[in-house]
Amino acid sequence: FDFDGAGTRAEIVRGSNPLVPETDLRTGLNLVHFPTQPAADFSAFDLLGTLGGSAFVSRIERVTPGSEMVPAAYYDGTSPAGVDFPVTNDAAYMIVMLQPRRQVWTGEPLCRSVHFVEGKQLIGFGCVDKSLTAHGLLEALGAGAIASMQRLNPKTKRFDAVAYDGDAKVGRDFQLNGIA
């Protein structure tokens, strides 16, 4: 129901609401998209506070599509520092956590179109069926549109990658929504 990658049964077993999007953030690097519509003026400094403050989160970065610039918001002691960039639901973020946290997001799950540009991008796929895989997306886009795709596997803490080698899809396939 909430497209956060956990099935309804799994959410009930762990005591969470299957209608409310959540993200299980692990210690270290997490690649995360914002699954609901944030307030118009919601920023990286706001997100640092939302994620528990300096005791929980170290830094938040965003890859700017097209330019590949990576602004960062972080803590200098207990004060936010760096770039206070806007947080939107059409980007994904690299979040470095100091300790694990289950983040419950407010608002309705938001499905949106994904716009690809040339160069590196960090994109989250929240509102896709669990059956859509990286190989399926490669096939849908075609070899001329995308060179490769990676994800940070939360179980192994390693990157999984798929790509085209000529006309053949190579690499270990993975779900775009979920933790399998």
Topology of helices and strands:
Elements: H1 8-13, E1 22-25, E2 28-33, H2 44-50, E3 57-62, E4 72-76, E5 79-82, E6 92-97, E7 101-104, H3 134-141, E8 148-153, E9 158-165, E10 168-171
Antiparallel strand pairs: 1-7, 2-6, 3-4, 3-6, 4-5, 8-9, 9-10
Description:
By secondary structure, the protein is mainly β. Helices cover 12% and strands 29% of the residues. The protein contains three helices and ten strands. It has helices at 8-13, 44-50, 134-141; strands spanning 22-25, 28-33, 57-62, 72-76, 79-82, 92-97, 101-104, 148-153, 158-165, 168-171. The strands form three sheets. A five-stranded antiparallel β-sheet has the order 2-6-3-4-5, covered by helices on one side. Strands 8-9-10 form a three-stranded antiparallel β-sheet, covered by helices on one side. A two-stranded antiparallel ribbon has the order 1-7. A hairpin with a 4-residue loop joins strand 8 (148-153) and strand 9. The protein starts with 7 loop residues before the first helix and ends in a 9-residue tail after the last strand.
Strand order of the largest sheet: 2-6-3-4-5
Order of H and E elements = HEEHEEEEEHEEE
| Overall pLDDT | 83
Range of strand content = 25-35%
What would you report as the Rg, rounded to the nearest angstrom?
17 Å
What's the total count of β strands?
10
> In whole angstroms, how far apart are the ends?
18 Å
Shape descriptor reads globular
- Main structural class: mainly beta
